[in-house]
């Protein structure tokens, strides 16, 4: 008897929603050697790609059961930063969310899903397909690299900082101001258009309801106002300045801690008791409850210029922390318990971004392959750039 081929088809939001959520729960197995965060899609399995310009979700059925899923999105990005426009651009397809039921693995279902999604990419004139996974996820990396010809491309760092009771100190010598959307778009296109993986529809990202805004920081007393960063094309910027934008990912999906050191669990419980019975201990660093689903803010589009700009980046991060923690702020979210960002693995800005090491990931593995006639050796010879633009719609 031959092996039964799975049926691969597009996701049906009405018929498949409950079955996809059940599959996600059955696939909740994280790496044993470190902390692992699980996602809670809050009833919308397609939430992680819904805001992308083009997106698709495929499901696999076998024996009348839903046994696998995969998601994909398509966009235009800066891909060859050293080439002049428009040769610096490429259409890329992102693969994510590959899941196969534990009872149906090693039957070619994952391969069938990847193959069909790549076919969709080719039909939409995609230049490169890429995916991201944890560096220690050998099964996922092996499938894409050994069977489908993907190569290791970049290893960005995911930095996670908890939102704590005590507010962070923002220097009185630093001016922080919010930009209008058109001002932010102007600065991003002016300063980051050549950044690797910069999204060319940045106006759509900034205008999305999940984007809380863009803020700039510069030394107080420079004689500048936020309007000086405007969009008329003849403005000057300070010799030291920094900017970032904030995306409310918690409106799409929540996270939950799946694994943690015993010391972390004990610290969390102890702090809750101290908070209840010994309020004077609130001056100690607090530990949010990571063991129930929680939301998070994602900082994206980090850019800084000048020898003193690292301090400005740190102050912007502390400002975002306070924004999330302040219950009276218009940007506050009761369920926001961490602030996350992702930066290039060799970007020196990492040391200025507050984060907890045991919650963060020092190397997230990005793999890529060409879908057209581009030679593979061109990818292997490209060296990592210092900065990397991570699209908040694909977090």
Description:
This protein is an alpha+beta fold and 395 residues long. It has helices at residues 17-26, 109-123, 138-147, 181-192, 202-207, 262-277, 309-325, 376-380; strands at 7-10, 36-40, 54-62, 65-78, 89-100, 128-134, 151-154, 157-162, 174-179, 211-219, 241-248, 254-259, 295-305, 336-343, 364-370. The strands form 3 sheets. The protein has a 7-stranded mixed sheet with strand order 1-3-4-5-6-15-7, sandwiched between helices. The longest helix is centred in the last third of the chain and has 17 residues, at 309-325.
Task: Provide keyphrases for this structure.
395 residues, alpha+beta, 7-stranded mixed β-sheet, 8 helices, 23% helix
* Overall pLDDT confidence: 85
Compressed to H and E, one letter per element, the order equals: EHEEEEHEHEEEHHEEEHEHEEH
Q: Which structural class best describes the helix and strand composition? A: alpha+beta
Strand arrangement, largest sheet? Answer: 1-3-4-5-6-15-7
Please give the structural blueprint.
Elements: E1 7-10, H1 17-26, E2 36-40, E3 54-62, E4 65-78, E5 89-100, H2 109-123, E6 128-134, H3 138-147, E7 151-154, E8 157-162, E9 174-179, H4 181-192, H5 202-207, E10 211-219, E11 241-248, E12 254-259, H6 262-277, E13 295-305, H7 309-325, E14 336-343, E15 364-370, H8 376-380
Parallel strand pairs: 5-6, 13-14
Antiparallel strand pairs: 1-3, 2-12, 3-4, 4-5, 6-15, 7-15, 8-14, 9-10, 10-11, 11-13
């Amino acid at each position: 008897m031959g092996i039964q081929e799975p049926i691969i088809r597009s996701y049906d939001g009405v018929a498949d929603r409950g079955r996809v959520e059940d599959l996600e729960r059955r696939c909740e197995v994280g790496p044993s050697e470190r902390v692992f965060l699980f996602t809670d899609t809050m009833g919308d399995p397609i939430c992680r790609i819904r805001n992308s310009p083009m997106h698709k979700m495929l499901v696999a059925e076998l024996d009348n059961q839903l046994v696998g899923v995969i998601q994909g999105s398509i966009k235009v990005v800066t891909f060859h930063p050293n080439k002049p426009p428009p040769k610096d651009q490429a259409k890329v397809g992102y693969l994510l969310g590959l899941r196969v039921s534990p009872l149906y693995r090693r039957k070619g279902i994952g391969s069938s899903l990847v193959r069909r999604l790549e076919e969709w990419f080719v039909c939409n004139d995609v230049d490169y397909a890429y995916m991201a996974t944890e560096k220690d996820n050998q099964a996922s990396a092996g499938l894409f690299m050994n069977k489908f010809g993907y190569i290791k491309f970049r290893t960005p760092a995911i930095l996670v900082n908890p939102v704590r009771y005590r507010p962070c100190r923002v220097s009185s010598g630093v001016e922080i101001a919010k930009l209008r959307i058109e001002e932010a778009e102007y600065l991003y296109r002016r300063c980051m258009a050549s950044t690797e993986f910069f999204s060319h529809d940045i106006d759509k990202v900034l205008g999305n309801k999940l984007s809380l805004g863009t803020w700039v920081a510069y030394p107080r007393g420079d004689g500048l106002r936020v309007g000086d960063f405007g969009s008329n094309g003849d403005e000057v910027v300070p010799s030291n300045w920094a900017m970032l934008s904030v995306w409310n990912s918690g409106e799409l999906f929540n996270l939950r801690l799946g694994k943690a050191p015993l010391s972390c669990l004990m610290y969390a419980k102890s702090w809750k008791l101290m908070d209840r019975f010994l309020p004077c201990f609130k001056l100690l660093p607090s530990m949010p409850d990571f063991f129930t689903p929680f939301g998070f803010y994602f900082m994206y589009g980090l850019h800084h210029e000048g020898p003193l700009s690292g301090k400005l980046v740190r102050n912007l991060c502390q400002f975002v922390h306070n924004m999330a923690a302040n219950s009276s702020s218009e940007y506050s979210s009761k369920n926001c318990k961490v602030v996350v960002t992702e930066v290039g693995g060799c970007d020196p800005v990492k040391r200025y971004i507050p984060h907890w090491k045991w919650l963060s990931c020092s190397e997230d593995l990005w793999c890529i392959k060409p879908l057209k006639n581009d030679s593979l050796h061109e990818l292997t010879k490209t060296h990592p750039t210092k900065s990397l633009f991570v699209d908040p719609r694909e977090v």
